[in-house]
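Take a careful look at the protein record below. Let me know whether the structure tokens fit the sequence:
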Amino acid sequence: MNEIIVPHGVKDKLIKQFNTSYPTVRAALRGKSKSLLCLRIRKAALDNGGVEVATIDNNNKYVIL
């Protein structure tokens, strides 16, 4: 999965909304987990202004999808 970058403050909002921890939200946004909770977090992040990006090389250059 691709990474989702969110505006400032959205991660805290997601933590409260889903009653979960920062590492869970971080893993969800980085695409490291495919659990139902993480998929719901990813959708909420996109609905709150998040942008899905993909790494195009090893220098962490991103392309917006």
In short: Residues 57 and 63 are 10 Å apart (CA to CA).
